[in-house]
Amino acid sequence: MDKKLVHTPEGVSDIYGREYTGKLNAQKLIHEKFSLYGYEDIQTPTFEFFDVFSKEIGTTPSRELYKFFDKEGNTLVLRPDFTPSMARCAAKYFMDKDVPIRFCYQGNTFTNTGNLQGKLKEVTQMGAELMGDGSIYADGEMIAMMIESLLAAGLSEFQVSIGEVEYFRGICRQEGLSEEVEYQLRDYISGKNIFGAQEFLLEKGIDAKTTEMLLQITDCFGALDALDKAESLVNNDCSKKAVDRLKKLYEVLCAYGVEKYVSFDLGMLSRYNYYTGVIFKVFTYGVGDAIAKGGRYDKLLEYFGKKAPAIGFMVVIDDLMLALNRQKKDEDSENNPKVITFTADNYEEKLEEARTLRKQQIRAVLTPAEGEAK
Fold first, then answer.
1. Exposure pattern of 282-314 as b/e (b: 16+ CB <10 Å)?
2. Which of 55, 281, 38, 77 is nearest to 180 (CA)?
3. Contact assessment for residue 309 and residue 275, using Cβ atoms and an 8 Å cutoff
4. How far is residue 103 from each of residues 42, 81, 145, 219, 283, measured CA to CA in Å?
5. How many other C-beta atoms can be found within 10 angstroms of the C-beta atom of residue 13?
6. What is the pLDDT of residues 66-98, one digit of tens each?
7. Which of 37, 142, 205, 288 registers the highest number of CB atoms within 10 A of its CB?
8. How far is CA 135 from CA 29, 140, 246, 358, in A?
9. How many domains does the chain have?
10. Considering the domain boundaries, does residue 282 fall inside one?
11. Under a CB-based contact definition with an 8 Å cutoff, are residues 215 and 196 in contact?
């Protein structure tokens, strides 16, 4: 047999033993938190029609999708992201319902990117979606539940960075930038590539004053006072309303008692163009990328025929486990099973000992003593 076959392709990995046990336990704890908030489980297909993740919807670029064909010639893709699937599902089964819908999910996503930088192409995600509620209270519920879920899983040192897409969009409209320039500029700014953004604006003939204003938003981050600075930079209603919404959101998060985990970043944008309002990401030390992210997508369901506001988030379980491991907060040795050895002479006695432990919810492994027949 070719020895290469015992290895996995680039970007995927095997998980087993204690590592997998820890992952399953984290998923269980997060799911319990979702359930306490009244979220119902939903399972969507691993692959969908290509159009569910099309460019028009503003999701993952086509080149990063795993594409294949069915017998009828339809183009299918492995899901790179759960949110469009959730939107499709809500439109299909809850078209005529106007009450808020609460979904939660878990499963794997697949992204065919060559720029890995240590990232996996297949990851496990857990998340929640609240559809049919466009209020600031829905925003607060989502962010608070996400924070509580991470705390339940054992993570204690992290920061939720909150931004607002409409703030940036308002500036672009104020300065008369085209949608094409806005989207390209969003890519530069979301990647914190300030020099690239500056060069791009120069190439597009954007004047120095407008360029300076657009780049200044990357300095609007930090505690609550960052919102005052952001508000002072703009004179359009769209951006000012975005800042005002964030201030009200902060009050809701204070009511939940989670404000110490929160900061603001008006220069934070997303590669997903379906986001329409508040967006947020969770960062912690030991991991180079956000371990959780989400936001409001009030127009996404319209692509599937249902007009309804929505907000959601997802946790990358693999990155969460990496953070827990590097912060020495993964499962400790107390969770290791008790090993009971036996011989042919005392097998029944040791078997009864193992059964007694298991009835007490204590893990026990029964194994033959060295030298016993195998």
1. bbbeebeebbbbbbbbbbbbebbebebbbbbbb
2. 55
3. no
4. 6, 15, 13, 36, 24
5. 12
6. 999 999 999 999 999 999 999 999 999 988 888
7. 142
8. 27, 9, 12, 48
9. 2
10. yes
11. no
Residue that the structure tokens 């499962």 belong to: 331
State if pTM tops 0.70: yes
**Rounded Cα gap, residues 285 and 37, in angstroms:** 28
**Residues 361 and 314 placed together within one structural domain of the fold:** no
| Gap between the Cα atoms of 363 and 374, Å rounded | 23
- 267 shares a domain with 355: no
User: Do 309 and 361 reside in the same domain of the chain?
Assistant: no
Quote the CA–CA distance of 145 and 142 in Å, as a whole number: 5
- Residues in the chain, pLDDT under 50: none
Dihedral of alpha carbons 346, 348, 351, 355, sign? negative
DSSP state of 333: G
Query: Whats the size of the chain, residue-wise?
Result: 374
Residues spanned by the domain of 357: 338-368
DSSP character at residue 357:
H
Tokens of 181: 């320039």
* pLDDT tens-place string over residues 146-159: 999 999 999 999 99
For residue 373, being part of any structural domain is answered with: no
Name the residue among 218, 216, 209, 206 with its Cα closest to residue 182: 206
